[in-house]
Design brief:
Layout lengths: L2 E5 L4 H12 L3 E6 L18 E4 L5 H11 L3 E4 L6 H4 L3 H23 L3 E7 L22 H20 L3 E6 L2 E2 L8 H14 L5 E3 L5 E2 L2 E2 H12 L6 E4 L5 E2 H11 L8 E3 L17 H7 L7 H15 L7
Parallel strand pairs: 1-2, 1-4, 2-3, 4-5, 5-6, 6-11, 7-10, 8-13
Antiparallel strand pairs: 9-12
Helix pairs in contact: 1-7, 2-4, 4-5, 6-8, 6-10, 8-10
């Protein structure tokens, strides 16, 4: 039985990954922060089947202790501050937890057991203000927020440790991936949650920033399947993971309202305070390498993704959709 350690196991990606690895027969360990106690909703269906350890990316002593105790064969680092918009408010925290902490993790693994395989997710936001579209593994980075700057640093650290020490460190360059497990601070979940509340008569408007932004949206669970597949390859490498199609925030809004049979124009308002200081160019994934290497092919497309998220939020409110 393989043993794995998932950092950030209670988040969207970490919880899906835990379910996938349990299904594949792994012994699953997870790191959670003390401040996150009580936020185990995503893990409720599998809580009795995973082993949780208190630790923090900001505390290398706790990381070293857990890795020493668990001695995993694979580590998936799904823990960071992963909200690009919020990173403008807490830049120093992003530089440390999203960037420097990756270096701390790699060095701990190198010293404890350099044969442990590591998976590090990074973000399409690293491409930022690029003039190249679509983007692949060779596209130069031009990050436009503190979060993506920290992720570029994390990627460079992974590549350096891989080359310098021969460690198995693979990187997934993930484009936006959503699910019902997204928190409501993310625009997709804000939309489906608010639209569901409007359907239930519990809200009267949906307030958004830039609805013209076009985004490559995929389904989080499929991206975690991709992460596992990347880790099973003979050699570590970097892979772009995305759908290769883009849809605007306005399209997402319209699809959500259409799903419940209501007109979005009656409820959507704009607030300039929600706009970011800097915007990305059009980010669209070229996942050719992942497709050729391990057969990556996203099955859940845009409308199905909206449906999955809407069904969850409507059910949570006890609202029946007659559409």
């Amino acid at each position: 039985m393989k043993r794995t350690l998932i950092l950030g196991i209670n988040g969207q990606d970490g919880s899906y990954l835990a379910e996938i690895l349990l299904q594949k027969g792994y012994e699953v360990h997870g790191l959670i922060r003390r401040s996150a106690t009580g936020n185990l909703t995503n893990l409720e269906p599998i809580l009795s089947r995973v082993m949780l350890h208190y630790g923090d990316l900001a505390d290398p002593i706790s990381l070293a202790r857990i890795i020493n105790e668990v001695r995993p064969e694979e580590i998936y680092n799904e823990a960071d501050q992963d909200h690009a918009g919020i990173s403008f408010k807490i830049p120093a925290y992003n530089f440390d937890i999203t960037g420097s902490a990756v270096g701390r993790l790699l060095e701990i693994v190198r010293q404890v057991d350099s044969s442990i395989k590591i998976f590090q997710p990074v973000t399409s936001n690293m491409f930022g203000n690029t003039t190249i579209c679509p983007q692949n593994e060779e596209t130069p980075f031009s990050p436009m927020n503190p979060y993506s700057c920290a992720k570029v640093f994390a990627l460079n650290l992974c590549q350096m440790y891989r080359k310098a020490y021969g460690m198995f460190i693979s990187v997934g360059i993930f484009f936006n991936h959503e699910s019902p497990r997204r928190t409501e601070s993310y625009v997709t979940r804000k939309i489906t949650n608010t639209v569901s509340k409007i359907k239930a008569g519990l809200a009267s408007e949906l307030v958004l920033g830039d609805t013209s932004a076009q985004i490559d949206w995929g389904y989080a669970r499929e991206y975690m399947e991709a992460a596992w597949n990347i880790m099973q390859l003979e050699q570590p490498d970097d892979f772009v993971i995305g759908t290769g199609e883009v849809h605007s925030v306005e399209e997402f809004v319209n699809e959500a309202f259409h799903y419940i049979g209501m007109d979005s124009k009656r409820f959507v308002k704009s607030d300039s305070a929600l706009l970011r200081p800097a915007q990305n160019s059009l980010l669209k994934a070229d996942s050719t390498k992942a497709k050729k290497t391990f057969g990556f092919e996203p099955k859940v497309r845009f409308k199905e993704l909206v449906k999955i998220m809407m069904d969850h939020d409507l059910e949570k409110l006890g609202v029946k959709n007659n559409r």
